[in-house]
Amino acid sequence: MKTWWAGLAPRERAILAAGLAVLVVLMLWLLVWEPIAKSRAELRAEVATLSAELGWMEQVADRVRRKASQGSDAASAAAGGSVLTLVEVAANASGIKANIERVQPEGQGARLWFDQVGFDRLIAWLGQLEQRHGLKISQLAVDARGEAGMVSARVLVEPR
């Protein structure tokens, strides 16, 4: 190799040395600098995305805390008040109290019998008991009556 190098003209040696220097710089650029720059750009993009998600989560966190406190307020109201009282107040507000045939305490909850009550009103009232008052419907039996939309029902309501 030394003899080959020595056999080259000075101008050829300069061209080869310059080409080798350009090749070394190009290899450093492609194998070292470019991957580092690409990784850095990807990390910056990821940081921007994560920052946006954090901002969104901080905005939503207040709403979630409020909903959680409302849910715990409803649960504490159910725990603090009697299930029978909550059921009676909610039935009176929904206009189906007159359709309650019988109410019987059962454990911590109450069992109710309805006769000739509108199905839609009954289901809306049961939804209110669960959502607003923190109660759960453990058992529900519904039988169709003669008129369209009218049912008789047996319901077991308990605290959550």
TrEMBL record:
Keywords: Cell inner membrane, Cell membrane, Membrane, Protein transport, Transmembrane, Transmembrane helix, Transport
Assigned protein family: Belongs to the GSP M family.
Species the sequence originates in: Halopseudomonas xinjiangensis
Function: Inner membrane component of the type II secretion system required for the energy-dependent secretion of extracellular factors such as proteases and toxins from the periplasm.
Bilayer-spanning residue ranges: 14-33
Membrane topology per record: Single-pass membrane protein
Highest taxon of the lineage: Bacteria
GO biological-process terms attached to the record: protein secretion by the type II secretion system
Subcellular location: Cell inner membrane
Name of the protein this chain belongs to: Type II secretion system protein M
Entry GO CC: plasma membrane; type II protein secretion system complex
SUPFAM superfamilies, per the entry: General secretion pathway protein M, EpsM
Record-linked InterPro entries: T2SS_GspM (IPR007690), T2SS_M_periplasmic_sf (IPR023229)
